[in-house]
Amino acid sequence: MKTVTSILFGIAVACLSGYGTAAWSQAAGDPTPEDGPGLSSGRDADLVKDRIRGFETRKSWPRFKAISPEAQVAAMGPGINIVGGYEAYWEGKKGTFSDEDMKRVADAGFKTVRIPLFAFRKIYTTQGNLDPVWLERLDHIIDLAIKNDMTVILDEHDFEDCAKDADACAILLANVWYELAERYKDAPNTVVFELLNEPNGQVDAAIWNAWIPDLVGIIRETNPTRNIIVGPVMWNSADQLENLKLPENDRNLIVTFHYYTPMEFTHQGASWTPDFQNLKDVRWTGSPEQLAAINTTFDKVSAWSKAHKRPILLGEYGAYGKVNTNLSDRASWTRAVTQAATSRGFARAYWYYEDGGGFGVWDDEKGWVGPIKDALLGN
Description:
Elements: H1 6-10, H2 12-17, H3 21-28, H4 41-59, H5 69-76, E1 78-81, H6 99-108, E2 112-117, H7 132-147, E3 151-156, H8 159-164, H9 166-183, E4 191-194, H10 205-220, E5 228-230, H11 233-236, E6 253-259, H12 263-266, H13 288-308, E7 312-317, H14 327-343, E8 347-350, E9 362-363, E10 367-368, H15 370-377
Parallel strand pairs: 1-2, 1-8, 2-3, 3-4, 4-5, 5-6, 6-7, 7-8
Antiparallel strand pairs: 9-10
Helix pairs in contact: 4-7, 9-10, 13-14, 14-15
InterPro entries: GH (IPR017853), Glyco_hydro_5 (IPR001547), Glyco_hydro_5_CS (IPR018087), Glycosyl_hydrolase_5 (IPR050386)
GO biological process, one term: glucan catabolic process
GO molecular function: beta-glucosidase activity
């Protein structure tokens, strides 16, 4: 595998024009009439209307005012991951997400929404442009967050593609941030960018540390003081913080980590985890040893934060519930992790809002999963 350098980022747009057909299809997805502009005049007219609506929406937002990352984290409070890239909403279809969900989240007391974006598949031209219809849908999500007085994190979530092909990821990731940074350069400071969710696989520490200044530099061309979220490799592991290298002179960075420990509890029965998919009835009772394990990790993160003067976001945490039906255990774990983050001044975002009974804290038929919601909000 080639080591990707800053040179690639500098010519990323040009590289796309020569990107191989097979690689392009695999990394970005074959463009379709639904994914990008069609050829008909009717479709073109619809695109013009969408762009006008999007411009008018963005023009109505408050203008950007710089805020320190410490103040940003303090304002984030409790947060939640919502309307991820796999939701039907992004394809213009009816799914589980509706505008009411954003209001419901805000009314419950959540202050931040993290939006997992699968933007790679929405690059529809060899010049690296993102599908304008998809961008209008993103405008709408941001608009909902702004109207509900919430911080919104735009999380580039194509980590699985990046883990398999770092060279392709370098090109696509650079283009995504050129596009998003330009589009949202005037958005209020409650719009925050997250470079890449859970770098892993081919994106090891050496490659990730080399990419970070380039990706940050792309954003800084149009957003010189907007706060940017970045985390370590190995799925944003707290154990990898010591290997994270950040641009020392850029003080508008927030560092994130994810916490799902112990995995045999939080992921028991999860079909996508070979080591845990056959587990069940694993307990978490809040024993002194179990609480000490959480505190040890969070103390380590806190010490790193203070030493490097970087505020912290716990960007994901949750316990899967389709097999683990012991709601009391799941709520106890969630409350313990929430308290560990809050007591150390970390912002936090729970995974996930609604996902058909997995991690979700909301069910369209039953409503809020009360014990989890209370654990998240400290009730």
